[in-house]
Amino acid sequence: MGLAYNIYLNSHRIYGCKNCKTHLSNHDDIMSRNFRGQHGKAYLFENVVNITAGEPGERNMTTGRHVVRDISCRQCKEVVGWKYDKAYEASEKYKEGKFILEAELLCTVT
Amino acid sequence: MGAIKYANGSSSGGKGALESNGSHANGSRSGAIVSSPSRLTEKRAALPPTFFGHDREEVTRILIQGLHELGYDGAATTLSRESGYELEGPVVAAFRAAVLAGEWAEAEALLFGVQRYGNADGDGGGGGLGGEGWPTGEVNIGFSKNRGKGIYVGDGAGAGSWPGYQHQQGGLPLAEAANKNEMLFWLRQQKYLELLERRDLDAALAVLRQELQPFAQATHDVGRLHQLSSLIMCASADDVRYQAQWTGAEGDSRAQLLSALSRYISPSVMIPEHRLAILLDQVKGGWISNCLYHNTSTSPSLYVDHMCDPDEFPLQTILELRDHTDEVWFLAFSNNGDYLATTSKDHTICIYETRSYKLVQRLEDHESGVCYVAWSPDDSKLISCAQARDNSARVWDVRTGRCILLLSSFTYPVTSAAWAPSGETFVIGSQDADAALCVWNLDGDKVFPWREDGLRVHDVAMTPDGSRLVVLLETRILVFDLASKDKLADFALDNVKLTSVNVSRNGRYMLVSMNDNKIRLMEIETGEVVQTYDGHRQTQFIIRSAFGGADENFIVSGSEDSRVYVWRTNGPLVTALDAHKPGCVNAVAWHPTDPRVFASAGDDSRVRMYVTFFFSSSYCLFCCESCLVWDFSLKRVLLFLCYAPIAIFLSCSLYSISQYSPSSLVLWNFPSVLLALVCLWAFLIRAPNFADAFGIRTSSYETVPVLDLSSIYLASITL
Fold first, then answer.
1. Which fold has domain B313-611?
2. Residue A90 · residue A46 · CB < 8 Å
3. Which pLDDT tens digit goes with each residue over A71-82?
4. Shortest CB distance from A4 goes to which of B456, B474, B540?
5. Is the ipTM here above 0.85?
6. If both were cysteines, with which of A54, B605, B680, B711 could A70 make a disulfide (CB 3.0 to 4.6 Å apart)?
7. Chain B CB contacts of A75 below 8 Å
8. Nearest to B458 among A2, A5, A20 (CB)
């Protein structure tokens, strides 16, 4: 719907979509590397741009029950990770509103 | 009239003095010369002092000046004789003559008065100065004994050394903001330049030393003095004129000097030039700024208060172009208005001709959505810019529809393009960090790439004379000089995302659209915001705005709430038209030569044409045998309904022999009543829609159902 230009980030190390190189997030925005996704390693990011979020769904993860939505690259529509909407356990609350990007689906764009 | 030399203007006998700043024209009472016969005085005394609430003297003097400027000098002198008011008193007239003749000493004396020493009462009639005494450092002129040495007359500092006291006598009353030093400087500068032009270098040097130098010391502004003194080095009169950018004594420099000085002289003594014309301009300006639908560039008539009719404004969609299959992102009329190009997410560009809006070309080479097109100045070529995967810009030949140049070296989307007025080079803006802003030529070479960090161009616009290039980054506006390629300005704005820019035809203003919900009209040179427009919505997407209307009287913009917004350029919202539901209206463009047409592009993959529609028939004849729809603008028959045998025969012969072949010929066999009902329905919903409903493309906005001759008698009965 409508024309929108991609947002471009400014930093020394930028992660982008493997498919179309759209900027997704900065290296400095990584909060934790201790995650695993469907394709292997995944990182928790504070702020991600140029994505569209899907419908929220409840999932049971290794850390407990969460409400997450899949996020995909705005341009090529490939799924790149997910976003935490709600965490049911108190120890996982820090993840709410943050994003997971799978390392396998990212590339570095400098 | 004035027997006294330095009285401020003359006054008619007994009618009261002219306004002057505190001076007394009472001196004239003793010599009050009523040169007119007593009968005229009586008549004048009988006339009321105000003219519908306006001061009689002001109105009459302005009329006298107006008559002089219109060229009716005889009428002006008759008026001034009959009313007893003079346009300019003798002093002002003498001053004017002195300046135009180049008598500088006399001009100074008349302007500032004469320094007198000694007794309190000089010649009668102490005409005072408008100013408040002498500013320090002003050089005494005229009759001072120490002329050659340039003494400074302080506030009474020198008074002690003279036996009497000094006071100013005569002189013209000056305006409130008058800067006497400046005026004196101009007079002397003119004198100096004229002496230089006559190659009288000794005299010029004397003027420089004695009369101009004290100014520099007083105002600490030596720059101008140095500049003037450097002119001594000029070799010839032409050189002097060129270096000083001065038109010469024979040119209009004296008249210009007089204009400049007259601005500082009290307006009641010397009426500002063209006063009547200025007053009329203000009246018209008031009407135009209040007129909400003002869509003409002709000056309104003075006979009637001006207010434009809303029916003349294009508020109705009369046509929807449906050739695209996905969101339409941009549209642009060609510079001469003959074509309309629309671009879409479906990778194609459609070019229509604007007489009947038929599709002329479909350019399909791009492999992703096309977000921008730019017509070359002669409308023979088109640059298109593509997004995402394609990341290229193409130059097309409009007539053949072939792509003549492909620029695919970009790794990020190309966002906009602008042609130089020569049509040989163009600027392409993209979001590529390496080649974000670059001048290319038609062979595909990079003529000049700008290298700067963080350049990701959202939009570019060029002034029509090709001198300035305005570049929009995400949060900054840059202005470049195209000839020297220098960056002239960098305006950084907070908290906004800029989406589009357009430059006005006079090259002074730029219209910038930005998120959230802001459109601003800014000056290109200073970045100052002249006007803001609000009411529309844009927060996430690229929504474009544009100038429009006759004389760029309107601003149009798309919006994310599916409406087209139109404002008057001086601020107020004219209308918000519903369009393209659901989804955004991405861009709106106004026809460059026909102010009654504009178009909008939206996310529903349609392009809507808004045209002033008027049904020009005075009445509609419903005939029983046939109905013919005639398009005045296309000069062709659009629809021909006929069913009676005679009518069918006639229509076929008309079809074959006439040059105006109908675009459709429908032969029906209907009972007459039913057809009359159909025609009535067509009239009620307005004929073009009727034609459109039958799938016939029309763009007519003047249609008239015309009766065919064979059934005229039946029609007269039914009517």
1. Methylamine Dehydrogenase; Chain H (2.130.10)
2. no
3. 988 888 889 899
4. B540
5. no
6. A54
7. 388
8. A5
